[in-house]
Amino acid sequence: MNTLRLLFLVVGLSVLTAVPALGQNYYAYVASESADEVALVRFNAGEETATVEETIRVGYIAPETEGAHGMTVAPDGEHWFVSIAHGKPYGRVAKYETATNTKVDTAHVGMFPATMEVSSVTGLLHVANFNLHGKPTPGTVSVVDPETMTEMDTVKTGVMPHGSRFAPDGRTHYSVAMMDGTLYEIDAVTRTVTRTLTTGEGMPKPTWADPHPTDPFVYVAHNGADEVVEVHREDWAVTRRFETGSGTAPYNLEVSPDGSTLVVSYKGTGETGIWNLETGERTARLPNTQSVTHGVVVAPDSRYAFVSAEGVGGEPGAVDVFDLRSNERVASVEVGQQAGGIAFWKREETTTSAR
Question: Measuring CA to CA, which of 3, 19, 111, 149 is 20 to 30 A from 123?
Fold first, then answer.
């Protein structure tokens, strides 16, 4: 090889090594109930690694375990909210800045606040008060102004409400009542229950409801019946039932933003189920890294699912990342004990040197 050709080869290789390659970082917040802390988790998709970027203490009564349970991020991504189950006398919701992870304010709500979401129409936060205490009386959904962090109203639903989620219109809110087996629909503008539906026989113990992003369906996890049901929102009837398997105890679920996939946490077996909504068939049943699976959130690009797993006793919790194209677990990271509520924050592009 002559000197000129060698020079061109060396220069070409130098250029190639300097070409930036685009990667993706995904960020999610997860609450650990027995540790009274929230972890900010980063998943590097290029390297398929998950790390805890920061851990934020969210309790304020030092000797007690206060129960950091539910998570949500505001639609503009500037604040996150965590429900604290135990209080004097009621529970509360704390608001934090995503830029600094510092607390802004606190709202007092009902007994054992759990799942939350902000309406894109009213801008108000809806909090399902699970109410584990005392006699099994009807619970409420608190309506909170996230600007002033004040409870503006309460909507009475059923016994042990859970799974607070909005339909794509931002006006229609869905939750379930675990102990009366009922799906509740709330008009977020009038703040009234508009319809109810018994979704199963016996004691199905519904624990979650999530509407489809484009089609007129809402999916309900029957924790006590080892199934997920599909409810047609216009016909207001169950249209399909997905049997998850004996002992799986499906707990939380989420439909991917592109509407193609349903991801379900199997709390009873420590697994995650991935379902094709077009065919109604399960495409994967994958083990989590800890034995009690809890929360599910799918990234906006519908590529990855982030699933929290509680652990047992003194075991740490975990966040497991599943690739919804290859149907495999690609990363995991340990977080605080009894990892539960999980919410997606943002996705950002990164650049690295590529060879």
Answer: 111
